[in-house]
Amino acid sequence: MPLSSIRKLLRVVKPYTFQIILVVLAAVFLSFLTGITQLALTPLLNLVLGTNITQAASTPPTFSFDLNKIGPAILSMISSATGLTDRWQLLAVTSIAYLALILIGQAAGFGARVWITRLRFSMVADVEHLVFSHILRLPLSFLRKYQAGWLFSRMDLDVRSAGSTLSEVVIDGLSSLLVSLFYAALLVRTSLSLALFAALAGVIQLALTRFLSTYTKRLTRRVLETSARLQAFGLERLLAVREIKALAAEAYEATVFRNFINQWKRVNTNQFIYKKVESPLRMSVNRTVIVAVMLFGAWQLVHGQLSTTAFLLFMFFAQQLITPLSSLSEMLLSLVEIRSTLDGVGYILSQDDEREGTGSRLVEGLHDHIVLKNVSFAYRDLPVLKNINLTIQRGEMVALVGKSGAGKSTLADLLMRFFIPTEGVIELDGIPAQEFDLAAYRRLFGVVSQDGLLFNETVYQNIAYARPELSQEDVERAARIANAENFILNDLDQGYDTLLGERGVRISGGQRQRVAIARAVVHRPQILVLDEATSALDSESERLVQEAISHVVKGHTSIVIAHRLSTILMADKIVVLRDGEIVEMGTHKELLALNGEYSYLYNLQFNDGVVTPMPQPERTATV
Fold first, then answer.
1. Which of 196, 209, 544, 570, by CA, is between 20 and 30 Å from 468?
2. Helix H or strand E encompassing 576
3. Residues of the chain predicted below pLDDT 70
């Protein structure tokens, strides 16, 4: 993962530093409880095997990690503290103490897991918020490379998967490490040779982990990438369900989806098999080592180098040591999985957001003009705009026309700083646009696009989108200007409180455009950008939207992109683009007189060259 991405993630984690320290201390406490609980078995075993109580009671109560001595030492401590010497009484006390330690350990473990689960959800929520916010700030040039479903999968599935695994690593991994060290100390102090035999399990486990880690990383990436592609495909097709039905492509899409599902099934099955093979493989290694330890311990027992109690305790703790060693190895593989899981997240976070390299100068408004000086732009080394020189005066309506692919929308995107010019500069009142704060600069604009995208919220929320400071009066004023108030109040059951559905599907295309126009003008922008606002509408809807446009351009600097030239006949300046270059510029009459590109486009739509233009707006009013 890139270092810049790690820094961003650490900034999210930083507020939780104190809680993370407490989690680590909780893991230490749980490890201590686990060790003490297991040690509580040693006096029980000594009592059952007939240890001399009088001799144990007279033994100085000093603690030792030697399993030959630890049981009598604990019995001596209990006897000194309680004054008990009867075997059954001591059995009762030690049994109650053992059960009490188990209950305390279970309760503490439950509390720690609840605590870390809450911490995990909080951190995952913060990381998801970080990634989502970063995605929104990425330049369009990056976002257009990837499907929305793929990006959402990186933000959602990957982060949650990593968070779930990491919480297990913190508690189980740290506890297993500390418990392993404790058990290892007991075994080494009891019999170094036997401990070395037991250490073979750890060495083999680590070797096995190293062998499996490469495959784990590759398999995890395949699972995540396949899931992301599946989610991206499903989301895209659900959004296009109307087109799928119109083309009678349900069976075809179901077949394609089946192919994605089969690929997803295959890689997830491989991961499941791998995980299920890993466990018995580790178990076989563990049991083999235990048998070897048992045989060597039996030899030492027969030759008087170990007592019966010490031998049994050694075998018990050797098996107990194997479990945390296996857990540690599994945790190491989990860390590999986490790293692979976060690769996609790290890749997204490593991308520079569109604010990089921009200034912080405040925008006071458009006072004079916007100027494009020798502006060129290329997308993936493909020239889109070439040497554009254009001045847009304040209050002027400028129309951009040309064939599809001429660069009209790209020019508008450059004005709004969705892209950075490859060459040249864009100036606002003589100041390079890059010097202005990006968000403040874009607030100068009100934008209406071709599809008039609306959200699954109410009419009011769509018009007042992202502007909580607006009042009901502001929203209603914008609806009146956009010629939308009539249908909102008369055709929608709940008026401004009517939910519009996903992408505004519950209202017609013309109604969507008028709501989009209201949203564009509600905050009183100084510059309006109307990008093919009527291209997908029927004649009646087009008339209503054109009337709305004629209202909203009053007193605004307007940039209108249109294929339907009837939309822009009243423009102060018409800019004709061809193959990314400005080939003509002037008013409607001036361009017709040139008998050039504009005249050709005009005659394609109006065969006889005669058209009734939209009503000319009075350009003195303000909104």
1. 544
2. strand 573-578
3. 1, 50-69, 71, 167-168, 171, 198, 201-202, 356-357, 534-542, 544-545, 607-623
Q: What is the pLDDT of residue 471?
A: 93
Q: Which residues contact 559 (CB under 8 A, 6 or more apart)?
A: 392, 398, 399, 400, 412, 415, 527, 528, 529, 530
DSSP characters over 497-551 = G-B--GGGTTS-HHHHHHHHHHHHHTT--SEEEEESTTTT--HHHHHHHHHHHHH
Q: CA-to-CA distance for 317 and 195, rounded, in angstroms?
A: 10
Sheet holding 369-379, edge to edge: 382-393, 369-379, 423-428, 431-432
Tokens read off for 51: 């240890």
Residue 621: per-residue pLDDT: 36
Tally of CA atoms within 13 A in the half-sphere of 284 that contains its CB:
6
**Nearest residue to 278 via CA among 363, 362, 216, 195:** 216
Token pair belonging to 145: 């490379």
Residue type, position 92, single letter: A
Same fold, 3-349 and 361-444+561-623: no
CATH class of 361-444+561-623: alpha beta
Please, which residues have CB within 8 angstroms of residue 410's CB and are 6 or more apart in sequence?
377, 379, 384, 385, 419
Structural element, H or E, at residue 476: helix 472-481
Q: Which of 231, 4, 15, 223 is nearest to 134 (CA)?
A: 4
* Tokens read off for 453: 């995208």
Which residues in 343-444 belong to E strands, given as ranges? Answer: 369-379, 382-393, 397-402, 423-428, 431-432
Q: How far apart are CA 370 and CA 244, in angstroms?
A: 43
Among 49, 71, 47, smallest CA distance to 186 is for 71
pLDDT at 39: 80
- For the chain, the structural domain boundaries read 3-349, 361-444+561-623
Instruction: Decide if 57 contacts 75 (C-beta within 8 A).
Output: yes
| CA–CA gap between residue 509 and residue 540 (Å, rounded) | 11
| Straight-line distance from the first to the last Cα atom of the chain, in angstroms, rounded to the nearest whole number | 50
Q: So what's the pLDDT on residue 612? A: 39
Quick one: CA dihedral 603, 608, 612, 617, positive or negative? positive
Give the DSSP H/E element, type plus range, for residue 103: helix 87-137
User: How far, in Å, CA of 415 to CA of 387, rounded?
Assistant: 15
Query: Which residues, 6 or more positions from 374, have their beta carbon under 8 angstroms from its beta carbon?
Result: 387, 388, 389, 423, 424, 425
pLDDT of residue 72: 72
List Cα–Cα distances, 410 to 366, 404, 424, 542, in angstroms: 21, 11, 15, 24
CA angle 365, 515, 485 (to 5 degrees): 105
CB 550 within 8 A of CB 613: no
Burial code (b: 16+ CB inside 10 Å, e: under 16) for 363-390 equals: beebeebbbbbebbbeeeeeebbbebeb
The pLDDT tens digits of the residues spanning 497-538 come to 999 988 888 998 888 988 998 999 899 899 999 887 766 566
How many whole angstroms separate alpha carbon 301 and alpha carbon 295? 10
